Amino acid sequence: MSSKTITPGLALALLLAGCGESQQQQAPQGPPQVSVVTVREQPVTLSTELPGRTSAYETSDVRPQVNGLILARLFQEGDYVRAGQPLYRIDPAPYQAQVASARAAVTRARAAIASTAALARRYGELVRINAISRQEAENAVTGAQQAQADVAAQQAALRNAQIDLARTTIRAPISGRIGRSAFTTGALVSAAQADPLTTIQRLDPIFVDIQQSSADVLNLRQQIMAGDLSRGSGAARVRLKLENGSTYPAEGTLRFTDVTVDPATGSQVIRAVFPNKQGLLLPGMYARAEMIEGTKSNGLLVPQRAVTRDEKGNPSVLVVGQDGKLQPRQLTAPRTIGQNWLVTAGLKPGDKVVVEGAMMLQPGTPVKAVPYNPNRPQGQAQAQPTGQAQAQAK
Fold first, then answer.
1. Fold of 33-42+299-381
2. What one-character-per-residue DSSP string does 220-262 give?
3. Is 204:131 a contact under the CB 8 Å cutoff?
4. Rounded to whole angstroms, how far apart are CA atoms 251 and 47?
């Protein structure tokens, strides 16, 4: 066989050897690269979103205080009325007659004072000369005193009649937006009726009643007492999301927390007050209130995409240790803050948490940590594992 002749088997062997040398030359050395964030303590504002209902700042059911026939309605339904503004007029004729009768009774009682006082003076002179008995003189003095008391009683009756006459004009007890009228002109009303004539509601400012579990309220108070949370000066701030998903433009403030717990639901009512100059909020509207609970001065935040969960739902992350190897960490992360988890246990300041690049890597693998860039487009490929990891993948 000629020395220039190459058998097919030999050619295949030479080709495989060349590929092996080419792969060894192309495979760079070094650990795989992962993106990490360094955990640092920072002030974190804690908030809770809870359901709530709006309610009027003040509400007054307008009812008659005297009996009679409604002669006129003096307002337009839905208008803004001011305290003291006339709303209805009830037939005043019977009460005008009562005032006239009471005035006459006062005049009669005052006339009786003059005669009884003169009689008491005369009897006083006669008793000194023993012309009459002392008992008769004392009776005359008592009659004069009773006449004076009768005048006071008749004056009180006159005042009561004048009050009833004034009540024939029904006035607004508070300022606010007035609702529909349940009674029309010509209706007979009475002071003892249960149904109101109409209702007035003050809507600026307006309340939002929020339901929060008593356990959450207790935890919040304990954290504030322990110094874990600080609210600073002033009342806690509240933001509002409306039924249509929009955010109410003005912030409210926490007014008070109810002093009792509803035994049926185990919740407490928290009341916040919001300005409502434009009248956008109406009583009975559903809303979600975001309460600013306070600020945690030493909060630890970890991106949500860095956290994984096991079959039991327990959160964990991979951390690059001091030796440059991956280490698993179990976390306690009770809530989210924006795009991050708030970690209360499992991490300490300075830990390097892996965010990207460790999907195919096992704990204990040496890695090269580079800072995580949150602005990198998600579709852009992350630096791929190199060296031995690439060789293993092939």
1. 2.40.420
2. HHHHHHHTS-B--SSPPEEEEE-TTSPBPSS-EEEEEE-SS-B
3. no
4. 14
Of the candidates 296, 165, 160, 294, the one whose C-alpha atom is nearest the C-alpha of residue 228 is 296
- Amino acid symbol at 51: P
Q: Could you confirm whether domain 67-91+168-195 is CATH 1.20.1300.10?
A: no
Q: What is the DSSP letter of 105?
A: H
CA distance 101 to 32: 106
Instruction: Quote the CA–CA distance of 150 and 365 in Å, as a whole number.
Output: 107
Give the separation between CA 153 and CA 145, rounded to whole angstroms: 13
The token duo for 101 is: 């009768």
Inter-residue contact 350 to 38 (CB < 8 Å): yes
What fold, for 93-166? Helix Hairpins (1.10.287)
pLDDT per residue, tens digit, the chain (394 aa), is 444 445 555 455 545 455 554 444 454 567 888 889 999 998 888 777 888 899 999 999 999 999 999 999 999 999 999 999 999 999 999 999 999 999 999 888 888 777 777 666 776 767 677 777 777 767 777 877 787 788 888 899 999 999 999 999 999 999 999 999 999 999 999 998 999 999 999 999 999 998 887 777 777 677 666 665 555 555 677 889 998 889 999 988 888 777 788 888 888 888 889 999 988 999 999 999 887 777 788 888 999 888 988 888 889 999 998 898 899 999 988 888 888 888 988 899 999 999 988 888 888 889 888 998 877 655 443 444 444 344 333 3
- The number of residues making up the chain comes to 394
User: What φ, ψ does residue 123 adopt, rounded to 5°?
Assistant: -65, -30
Any long-range contacts for 38-41 (C-beta under 8 Å, 24+ apart)? 38/350, 38/351, 38/352, 38/353, 38/371, 39/300, 39/301, 39/302, 39/343, 39/347, 39/348, 39/349, 39/350, 39/351, 39/352, 39/353, 40/300, 40/349, 40/350, 41/297, 41/298, 41/299, 41/300, 41/349
Kindly tell me the burial class for residue 374, based on how many C-beta atoms sit within 10 Å of its own C-beta (0-12, 13-18, 19 or more): exposed
Per-domain boundaries in the chain: 33-42+299-381, 47-57+204-297, 67-91+168-195, 93-166
Please state whether the predicted TM-score (pTM) of the whole model is above 0.90: no
Residue 293 has phi, psi (to 5 degrees) of -75, -40
CATH, domain range 47-57+204-297: 2.40.30.170
* Cα of 115 vs its chain's centroid, Å: 71
